[in-house]
Amino acid sequence: MEKELIDHLNENGKYSQDDFKLLETELLQLSLKEGEIILKEKEVCSSIYFLIKGAAIQFYNDDTHNAVIVDLNGPGDWLLNHKSFATRKPSEYIIKVYSDSEVYQLSIESIHGLIAKSQSFFQMGKILEESTSRVEFFDHNYTPDQKYHFLMERRPHLIQLFPQKVIASYLKITPETLSRVRNRFSKT
Amino acid sequence: MEKELIDHLNENGKYSQDDFKLLETELLQLSLKEGEIILKEKEVCSSIYFLIKGAAIQFYNDDTHNAVIVDLNGPGDWLLNHKSFATRKPSEYIIKVYSDSEVYQLSIESIHGLIAKSQSFFQMGKILEESTSRVEFFDHNYTPDQKYHFLMERRPHLIQLFPQKVIASYLKITPETLSRVRNRFSKT
DNA sequence: GTTCTTTCTTGATTTCGATCAAGTGCTGTT
DNA sequence: AACAGCACTTGATCGAAATCAAGAAAGAAC
């Protein structure tokens, strides 16, 4: 099992050597090419994917067929649509690999099996807690500068993984505004 | 048990007569006066409340001590802070009764006990799914008109329960803008 | 290398919602 | 009834970000 996942699990819970061995038997390692779709629109999210290397985006197409990016992911992140996974209903969003990536796939059946074998895997339920950062963005009604600072503090690695137009879409600002924010920011 | 709760449960799951009886023994009915606090800041949310009559708000105080409203509730809604309830960590937000209200209180211990007695109560886990409307607001980057239309479609009763300044804070627009939106809206 | 494309930057202009400022109307209190 | 205190409306102005429009820079394809 890759170091990334071991570190991630140890940071977010307590697992024994046996737990790691159990988990390893359920993981499916996949290599994905840029542009591959992990979760199609209207498909039920029935696996979660641990991103070892690469980058992924979650988005939907608005009425004018523009991709609206709702989440960005880098190495160490879990890829899933929380809502679809929890409700077993079709996903409104699409998950797509943004650059060549390595992932571990873990099916919902595997997760249930693991929990049956070891209570430790209950802790994985944490993955289901929607990363609250998006909700906080909304609650706080941030300015473009605040949004960028927020991103720099919480997920700075994402800035390296995606072009600015993607970051801008994620932050709900225009690429021009992001360029000016970065310009201001680099002078302080 | 009040009709509101029976209807609510039947709409969101399948429960037997025995389930209702079991539940009834765990419910604590409370009358609350306008302004009473249900969940204090930094308190762990260890009960959920079903709002039979009245109205409630969830908010936090920003750096300048203005209340920023993050959720509004009316009869038929459950009152809880999802994040604190799920993580057992202190809540960042406050839940306050906005007008004299009738609620049922249900503690987390009661919920666990109910699940132990009847699998039906697993379905209550749905309550824990964060109402997605707030996230959608953010994802879609709505204009003030769209926000108001969204509210009119999804939760029109809230508009009757709260003054416009409260609705405006919830929608992250000024009361002036809301007044103009409503004015435009009433002419179509 | 050179060309073609895409990304990023920079400037000018526009636009929408916030802010500022009165004024109106409603409710409750004495 | 008279007043005080709010909630709401309406108008005028302001400002921040979007939009429009070139260019510059950086990659990719040949």
Description:
Two copies of one chain form a homodimer. Chain A starts with a helix and ends with a helix. Chain A is α+β, with helices and mostly antiparallel strands and 188 residues long. Chain A is 43% helix and 24% strand. Chain A has nine helices and six strands, in the order ααβββββαβαααααα. In chain A, 30% of the residues are buried. In chain A, helix 8 (164-171) crosses helix 9 (175-186). In chain A, strands 1, 2, 3, 4, 5 and 6 form a six-stranded antiparallel beta sheet that branches. In chain A, a hairpin with a 5-residue loop joins strand 3 (47-61) and strand 4. Chains A and B meet through helix 3 and helix 5 of A and helix 3 and helix 5 of B. Chain A binds a DNA duplex (30 and 30 nucleotides) through residues 143-144, 163-165, 173-180, 183.
Please outline the major beta sheet of chain A.
Answer: 6 strands, antiparallel
Along the chain, the helix and strand elements of chain A come as HHEEEEEHEHHHHHH
Q: Give start-end ranges of low-pLDDT stretches of chain A.
A: none
- Residues in helix, % of chain A: 40-55%
The greatest inter-chain interface is formed by: A-B, 17 and 18 residues
Radius of gyration of chain A: 18 Å
Q: How does the helix and strand content of chain A classify structurally?
A: alpha+beta
- According to DSSP, the number of beta strands of chain A is 6
Contiguous helical run count of chain A: 9
Beginning-to-end CA distance, first to last residue of chain A: 42 Å
Average predicted confidence as pLDDT of chain A: 90
